[in-house]
């Protein structure tokens, strides 16, 4: 047997060996429920970390203790194969689901086989289908809204015509987003733009659509160069962040830009990045949502959709960027980081 860890290639005390050619993730377990050896397929399935558990109690891998320990003991005592269906197993890349087969080889050794569960349609997949259905249904109403706003533009005074023009522009943007949802997988339409123009559009929409008076401050870095982005997508991401702040009870909002030199975006280093901060004085991010905040359908409000932040992060990553936050009650900052140069 030849494994990635040279020490693991030795024959375990039980005398049994594993086939390294097998595509099924497998491990040997001793009578004390300790992991003796693993084949390469198990290393891969565990994210390359299986060798780190050699000699460790098998129970450490159980995300739903004590189910795995109980099944292992039953297999040894009854000397028969025991199945643990839809188990949750701890791996280096997070908890994963699998069916586990525990087969006694003798009184002192047991073969553990990991059979990954066939993937069901994920929440994200189902969500994408729902969004495409929604996009199809709103195209007609959007066209009607645009026509009505254009008629109003012709009959209103200068100030009100500007507001009607804002409606037309937003309807056009929503229509464009709907088309992109209907043709999922389309790449962003990138062009070099002045991000301050986009942030100013966000400011106009935030103050126009706020239900309560909103104090809005701007803090722009004039040295920030043009950034290659999809303007509509970036606008959508920033609007989602602003809407999130308003729904958290913000009364003051700060839109801030900075040029960051020698920045890190995830694991990458970039010479220059554009940072756009949305700072608010709302209630902050609930502690219980800190680890799942950007997942679809996760919301701190009973009537929340849980889509805004998930979509904002998706847009950031479409551009090779990232979205993060820091929060406490009365002071929350969402920071959108975009590469200007690698």
UniProtKB/TrEMBL annotation:
<feature type="domain" description="Histidine kinase">
    <location>
        <begin position="133"/>
        <end position="342"/>
    </location>
</feature>
<keyword id="KW-0597">Phosphoprotein</keyword>
<dbReference type="Pfam" id="PF00512">
    <property type="entry name" value="HisKA"/>
</dbReference>
<keyword id="KW-0067">ATP-binding</keyword>
<keyword id="KW-0418">Kinase</keyword>
<dbReference type="InterPro" id="IPR005467">
    <property type="entry name" value="His_kinase_dom"/>
</dbReference>
<dbReference type="InterPro" id="IPR003594">
    <property type="entry name" value="HATPase_dom"/>
</dbReference>
<dbReference type="Pfam" id="PF02518">
    <property type="entry name" value="HATPase_c"/>
</dbReference>
<keyword id="KW-0808">Transferase</keyword>
<keyword id="KW-0902">Two-component regulatory system</keyword>
<dbReference type="InterPro" id="IPR003661">
    <property type="entry name" value="HisK_dim/P_dom"/>
</dbReference>
<dbReference type="InterPro" id="IPR004358">
    <property type="entry name" value="Sig_transdc_His_kin-like_C"/>
</dbReference>
<dbReference type="InterPro" id="IPR036097">
    <property type="entry name" value="HisK_dim/P_sf"/>
</dbReference>
<protein>
    <recommendedName>
        <fullName>histidine kinase</fullName>
        <ecNumber>2.7.13.3</ecNumber>
    </recommendedName>
</protein>
<dbReference type="InterPro" id="IPR036890">
    <property type="entry name" value="HATPase_C_sf"/>
</dbReference>
<dbReference type="GO" id="GO:0000155">
    <property type="term" value="F:phosphorelay sensor kinase activity"/>
</dbReference>
<keyword id="KW-0547">Nucleotide-binding</keyword>
<dbReference type="GO" id="GO:0005524">
    <property type="term" value="F:ATP binding"/>
</dbReference>
